């Protein structure tokens, strides 16, 4: 039997975040399992292209740019339409060459539906599309979202044969929104890399100008949904009991949200205790986790699934919100603390440091055995094969 031909579709790979890590690791593992894999996207950075290595890429003649700040209504609508059009055109040109179309992230789902592809489409639904970073959206945006919500449901039900989600929290969202039963396929974690202590660079903290102290670390895009404002509030509240506490925020920055955070920092007198490091390499992130006293993730509902597990593999005690998808396994297997009282949780970790360090070591063992990219890809390959049969 010929090897299965799988086309992975992601809207844009312009920086390496959690969703991009899923695409790259899945492509390599599927290839390792014997599938023929290509990646189709509207844009890709040189860094991500290097990570794809020998995975064939399908790109437009002119790649689409991306603005991280929230666009206006009409410019945002224009960018969405442009992205859907480009993805649809590429899909129409290449869809006949593949057995399975494996889509990731909105609006790739719309492009697949508008390209007329049915029955042989798997969707790795990181989260159903929402107004994640537009909680204060204008009436115009909310009206557009209302109509888009129903269009999204229609197009997904029309084209997607199987929805996959990483956890039961997102499974409930998918059931409610689409009326379809999802497969729960927890992501893999690059656990061996984050557990590796042989290649740490001791100069990393001097490079960033970080002082010694009780270090809270939050890694993730600096946006409303990742909720760095809550981490700043926690830093302020623990100040009396942990006077040497500091907060390190690593990840690409939404400037409008950053301005709001700066106002909080100034008002709370934390100017010399909060550090924005921007987008970092995986090696630098690993070094941060290794030194962190707490990896804190007060994420609301969107994103951040991989980061807590990476932190645990690097040895950092982890505190997560109860609403983020990663909390499902963390609570189920006692890997860290899932709570809404972050301040009390940080004080608890500070008071019992050895206990929570040992908990992190046990969590690392469980992650290395269970949350592997090979397991993730094997399950997705089985789903793809079942659709072909």
General description of the model:
48% of the residues lie in helices and 14% in strands. Strands 3-2-1-4-5-6-7 form a seven-stranded parallel β-sheet, with helices on both faces. A six-stranded parallel β-sheet has the order 10-9-8-11-12-13, sandwiched between helices. The protein contains 16 helices and 13 strands. It has helices at 18-32, 46-52, 73-94, 108-114, 139-159, 168-178, 191-195, 204-208, 228-237, 255-268, 282-291, 306-313, 327-333, 342-351, 353-370, 373-388; strands spanning 5-9, 36-40, 57-58, 100-104, 121-124, 162-165, 183-184, 214-219, 245-250, 274-278, 294-297, 318-321, 337-339. β5 (121-124), α5 (139-159) and β6 (162-165) form a beta-alpha-beta unit. α1 crosses α16 and α4 (108-114) crosses α5 (139-159). It is α/β, with parallel strands linked by helices and 389 residues long.
């Amino acid at each position: 039997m010929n090897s299965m031909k799988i086309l992975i579709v992601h809207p844009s790979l312009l920086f390496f975040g959690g969703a991009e890590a899923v695409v790259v690791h899945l492509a390599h593992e599927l290839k390792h399992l014997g599938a023929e894999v290509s990646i189709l996207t509207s844009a890709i950075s040189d860094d991500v292209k290097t990570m794809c290595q020998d995975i064939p890429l399908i790109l437009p003649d002119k790649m689409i740019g991306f603005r991280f700040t929230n666009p206006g209504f009409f410019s945002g609508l224009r960018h969405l339409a442009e992205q859907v059009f480009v993805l649809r055109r590429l899909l129409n040109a290449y869809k006949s060459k593949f057995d399975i179309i494996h889509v990731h992230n909105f609006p790739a789902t719309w492009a697949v539906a508008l390209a007329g592809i049915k029955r042989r489409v798997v969707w790795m639904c990181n989260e159903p599309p929402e107004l994640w970073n537009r909680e204060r959206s204008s009436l115009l945006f909310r009206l557009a979202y209302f109509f888009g919500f129903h269009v999204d449901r229609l197009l997904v039900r029309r084209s997607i044969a199987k929805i996959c989600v990483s956890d039961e929290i997102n499974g409930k969202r998918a059931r409610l929104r689409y009326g379809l039963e999802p497969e729960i396929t927890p992501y893999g974690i690059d656990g061996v890399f984050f557990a590796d202590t042989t290649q740490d660079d001791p100069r990393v903290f001097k490079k960033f100008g970080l002082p010694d102290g009780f270090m809270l670390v939050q890694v993730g895009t600096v946006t409303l949904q990742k909720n760095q404002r809550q981490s700043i509030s926690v830093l302020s509240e623990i100040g009396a009991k942990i006077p040497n506490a500091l907060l390190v925020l690593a990840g690409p920055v939404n400037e409008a949200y950053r301005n709001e955070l700066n106002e909080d920092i100034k008002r709370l007198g934390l100017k010399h205790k909060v550090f924005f490091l921007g987008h970092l390499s995986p090696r630098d992130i690993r070094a941060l986790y290794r030194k962190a006293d707490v990896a804190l993730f007060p994420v609301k509902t969107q994103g951040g699934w991989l980061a807590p597990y990476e932190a645990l593999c690097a040895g950092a005690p982890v505190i997560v919100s109860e609403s983020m998808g990663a909390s499902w396994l963390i609570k189920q297997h006692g890997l860290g603390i899932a709570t809404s009282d972050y301040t009390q949780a940080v004080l608890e970790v500070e008071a019992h440091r050895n206990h929570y360090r040992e908990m992190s070591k046990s969590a690392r063992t469980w992650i290395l055995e269970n949350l592997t990219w090979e397991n993730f890809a094997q399950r997705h390959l089985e789903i793809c094969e079942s659709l072909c049969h």
